[in-house]
Amino acid sequence: DGNLGYRVYLDCGDNCDDEGCTNAAGDVNEDGTVNILDIVQVANYILVGGNLEGCGLEAADVNGDGFINILDIVQIANAILGRDGRIPDATSAKIQNTGSSVLIKAEGYIGGIQMTLKHGSDFSMDITDKAMLAEYNTVGNKTVLVIVTPESDEVFTYTGDFEIVDVIVANSQGRVDVGIPTAFSLSEAYPNPFNPTTSLTLAVPEAGQVSVQVYNIMGQVVATLANGYMDASTYTLTWDASNASSGVYFVKAQSAGSVTTQKLMLMK
User: Fold this and answer.
1) Is 90 exposed, middle or buried (0-12, 13-18, 19+ CB in 10 A)?
2) Statement: the pTM of the whole predicted model exceeds 0.90
3) What is the pLDDT of residue 175?
4) Which end of the chain is more exposed for a tag (fewer CB within 10 A), N or C?
5) Quick check: helix, strand or coil at residue 114?
6) What does the alpha-carbon distance between residue 211 and residue 230 come to, in Å, rounded to a whole number?
């Protein structure tokens, strides 16, 4: 259903008085305080399933939408940290795949990320440690990760192939739109002219074979920036022309019948 969470059916059981549950929203372990222990318990519930039930389960659904996910964890973190709003909330975010790491790019505050990946047995990852909490769990060919108040753009580094099958990115208030490529494209190189490196952003709307190569004016390939199967995402490609001579070059990107070319100027 795209909500990337667990639908909550409440039964307070023995933890309710005549008026229902008495523990505050976010007090998941029902110890009378809202702190990191509650965040860890909710994260564990999302990642591996847990023993949340009754009033603890109700307290975990902080935003009252009927699902337990990163949106609730962000609200608990806000209560703990007392966010002052000096950094404006992000209104949108973009997923960027560099070929070795996955980044979340946003203009503004990101409070949390929840992502589900599908992958083969050759896939491995290292999740960021620059966050209030960053954990993941892998079962078979599926990995679920949760990151709370990330301090950098990097979500994880990886080797192997994978596909992002679902994602929630939240600011301090709720879900933000996550942009995905809709057309095959290659951004203008920056800087250009350059010496000795320049970077481009490649947008791949559908998974498939992709080739990005640099040619000299004689039509000879002097560098290969990408060549092989790529998941639908955006990628940052960098050409280090330290060993190339000054002059005009062309970079050509192609995939599934789509081709784009642009001119590069190397000035040493």
Assistant:
1) buried
2) no
3) 94
4) N
5) strand
6) 9
> Can you tell me the distance from the alpha carbon of 147 to that of 20, in angstroms, rounded to the nearest whole number?
32
Q: What is the DSSP letter of 164?
A: E
Give the pLDDT of residue 215.
Answer: 98
Question: CB burial class (10 A; 0-12, 13-18, 19+) of residue 174?
Answer: middle
Within 8 A by CB and 6+ apart from 167, the residues are 4, 95, 113, 114, 115, 116, 178
| Token duo for residue 170 | 């939240």
Q: Which two tokens stand for residue 159?
A: 């080797």
The pairing of strands 197-204 and 16-17 is unpaired
Within a 10 A sphere around the Cβ of 217, how many other Cβ atoms? 10
**What are the helix (H) ranges across the chain?**
36-48, 54-60, 70-81
> What's the one-letter identity of residue 147?
I
Pairing type for strands 197-204 and 233-240 reads: antiparallel
pLDDT in tens, 149-164: 999 999 999 998 888 8
At 133, is the secondary structure helix, strand, or coil? strand
Report the b/e string of 104-143 with b at 16+ CB within 10 A.
bbbeebbbbbbbebebeeebebebbeebbbbbbeeeeeeb
Contact 209, 256 (CB under 8 A): yes
Q: Is the dihedral of CA 26, 32, 34, 36 positive or negative?
A: negative
SS3 5: coil
Amino acid at 142: K
Phi, psi angles (nearest 5°) of residue 105: -100, 130
Dist CA 61 CA 67 (whole Å): 6
Measured CA to CA in angstroms, residue 67 lies from 9, 21, 136, 146 at distances of: 9, 18, 19, 15
